[in-house]
Design a protein that fits this description.
Distance between the termini: 57 Å
Radius of gyration: 23 Å
Structural class: alpha/beta
Strand content: 15-25%
Shape: globular
Number of strands: 18
Length: about 425
């Protein structure tokens, strides 16, 4: 009997607002003449395809990208909380239960609209921990096995909040945010999703040091013009499961140690989860014994109709595969079950002799070293250990009198982490 593990990832970014003029500015980037006045009337005509004098191909493109669903943003926390109160209810979760009657599960990949942007045109909640702190009590207090992981948009060198960045080597914001999570919240993670699904070899190499499971690879059966998007997942394996990436091409199978899981858009203008996608996952489970169906959406739109859409497709596809059991899992749980990993947790021990820090682990960790987070003179950053001997690392604090706190975190290869935080001042 085959097993299909189903993961619904939510890219958590908090409330979002787009003004009418901003919507038309985006349309102009796709070729809409700037002579067309931004107005509700013109927007409705463009969405309905009834605006006269527009090139048919441009009209269709505008309808596809700027449809009413895509522009139905949740503008404030009250609107998001109202949605969350429903989807976190037992009635809702049990309505969408799996084959064995287990409730629907969600994996929350939380992003911070961190400090340092030069603008905020979508009126996001800005500040490290702001979104994290809002979600933690809502998720940790529910009665399910939802789990929280990390989502990250690399900031553009210009500081423009609307500009994407395809490089991790020109900034250290990712390390600052994680350092704050470790020291301030005593929190770490084993699963990751990239903002805009943008990944390249530099970020791939960084993830290889610390994070065992990557649910970023974006599945696209339909052709995408790579010159019009910032992500590139051409040529990834067409499997509903996991593979190790290559050192020189993050998209291809290779000899890195972390695992990649292909993930589909649940409902975007680029792509939508289809009956064929889900059937392929069932087929792989039947033929290979197991598979992982993974899809994602965002919290700044109403998730209820999208969950209903996914569930209807899964239920319909499952009718053709009565011998395949399908169950909802967190991202980590799905990875562990698919890869036959145990739940062994590493145990970190540390000792501090003057300004020399020793860290040991009682078992193998994922990557070459633990994550070392430091708070020094109110600045947060990561630094590197030296490997002293197997599972034993050393670090020398260079300005020890200025160090306020430090934290150490490490995953086991199966995605269970241990964490130690020490406050000195």
């Amino acid at each position: 009997m085959g097993k299909l593990y189903i993961v619904h990832s939510v890219d958590v970014e908090g409330p979002m607002t787009e003004t009418l003029h901003a919507t038309f500015e985006r349309m102009q980037a796709y070729g809409l003449p700037d002579s067309i006045e931004p107005s509700d009337e013109n927007l409705n005509k463009l969405q309905n395809g009834t605006f006269r004098g527009l090139d048919p191909s441009l009209s269709q493109l505008i309808q596809n990208i700027f449809n009413k669903e895509s522009l139905s943003y949740l503008n404030n926390w009250d609107e998001i909380d109202e949605m969350l109160s429903v989807i976190n209810s037992e009635q809702f979760r049990n309505k969408y239960s799996d084959k064995n009657g287990n409730p629907y599960l969600l994996s929350w990949f939380i992003y911070d609209h961190h400090e340092g942007f030069t603008n905020n045109p979508r009126f996001h909640e800005v500040g490290t921990h702001k979104i994290f702190d809002h979600y933690i009590p809502l998720i940790s207090n529910n009665n399910y096995n939802d789990e929280i992981y990390w989502h990250y948009h690399a900031p553009a060198f210009s500081g423009d909040a609307l500009e994407s960045n395809t490089c991790w080597s020109n900034h250290a914001m990712h390390e600052e945010i994680i350092s704050k999570r470790i020291i301030d919240k005593q929190w770490y993670f084993s699963c990751y999703r990239a903002g805009m699904c943008i990944e390249n070899n530099d970020s791939s190499h960084w993830l290889e040091m610390f994070i065992p499971f990557d649910f970023t690879p974006r599945m696209h059966e339909n052709h995408l013009d790579i010159t019009k998007v910032d992500f590139d997942w051409r040529g990834i394996p067409k499997i509903w499961g996991a593979w190790h990436p290559d050192w020189y091409d993050y998209r291809k199978p290779g000899s890195m140690k972390r695992y990649m899981f292909r993930t589909a858009d649940l409902n975007t203008y680029n792509s939508k989860l289809s009956f064929e996608d889900v059937s392929a996952a069932f087929i792989q489970a039947k033929e290979n014994g197991k598979s992982v169906l993974s899809y994602f959406n965002h919290d700044y739109r109403d998730m209820r109709p999208e969950i209903n859409m996914a569930y209807e497709i899964i239920s319909q596809a499952s009718e053709d595969f009565p011998d395949v059991e399908w169950e909802f899992c967190s991202a980590l749980e799905a990875a562990q079950k698919y890869l036959n990993l145990n739940n062994q947790k590493p145990k970190l021990n540390m000792s501090l002799v003057e300004n020399i820090l020793h860290v040991k682990s009682n078992t193998e960790i994922f990557g070459p070293q633990p994550f070392l987070a430091i708070k020094e003179n109110d600045k947060y950053f990561r630094d590197n250990f030296y490997l002293n001997e197997h599972n034993h690392w050393i670090y020398k604090f260079r300005k020890f009198n200025d160090v306020q706190s430090f934290g150490i975190a490490a995953n086991s290869p199966n995605g269970i982490y241990d964490i130690i935080v020490k406050h000195l001042k």
